Amino acid sequence: MYEIIYTNADGVQVSFSARPPFVVISKQGFGSVENTITTEKQYGLDGAILVSEQLDTRDLTIKGEAVGISPQDLDMLRKELIGVLNPKVAGTLTYRAFNNEYSIDVLVVKAPEMDDPIKNITETFTATFLALDPYWQDMSVYNSLIPLAVATKKHHFPLEIVANYEFATLKSGEIVPVENNGDVAVGGTFYITLGAEASDPEIYNVLTQQFFRFKGAYPAGTRFKLVTTRGKKEAIMTTPSGVDSNAMPLRDPNSTFLQLEKGNNYFQVKASSGIGNVIVQLDFQPLVGGI
């Protein structure tokens, strides 16, 4: 049993499944996509030389049947489907099956064509979509933050307060493994929080030796949000008073928008001072070529 949910940019959604009112008859384009290979032939040599290869855009089609309880109800369903699948509004397709969930950003190529119901209570339809980025985001596992530096509680009950008592300690600077079990490299969102003053907070990729660093000294309560995902890259700083600003001018000029390669990745939190005050969490969704 599976369910396909289309949600447009206005937040309005419609569900397609094996149950009415919108029953799926067939679907296409949800699996693998074509790999466009460019080659070059050279005089006197057999075969060809590889120039480049890349996955094509993804065409998705849902063929189904709208099922109403009366001609009037079917007319309302027809108008609902055409209204939600407005070609002028982008959206997202979400596919759920066997406790797994995947999503992909799409454009509506053509709104469904359905005849005006007269006596019928069912009507077939076809909805077509185009995904410019062909990869599905795997939302089923990585829907929680992964700590790269964490706060460790040290208090126990019954509680006894003594001199130099510590309620918790911050543990940063260790190498933390993160696995990307998707099909390709992917960006992510790094959330950096300063528990006390720190200078030059940095996220370091041990394997690639790439890093992203914010230059300068920052007071307790400062937060950074670093997004390294394709098409969404940004860096935002939030002051202790809650004011947001563009943090790109604060970055070290040699910084790189870090990616998570397929397989094991190893990250380390660094700072020129106050490393124990830097807490970092990571959120990312693996990308798969088909579902």
UniProtKB/TrEMBL annotation:
Residues 10-130 form the Siphovirus-type tail component RIFT-related domain. It comes from the Bacteria. InterPro entries: Dit_BPSPP_N, Siphovirus-type_tail_C, Siphovirus-type_tail_N. Residues 181-273 form the Siphovirus-type tail component C-terminal domain. NCBIfam families: phi3626_gp14_N. This is Uncharacterized protein. It comes from Lapidilactobacillus dextrinicus DSM 20335. The lineage of its organism: Bacteria, Bacillati, Bacillota, Bacilli, Lactobacillales.
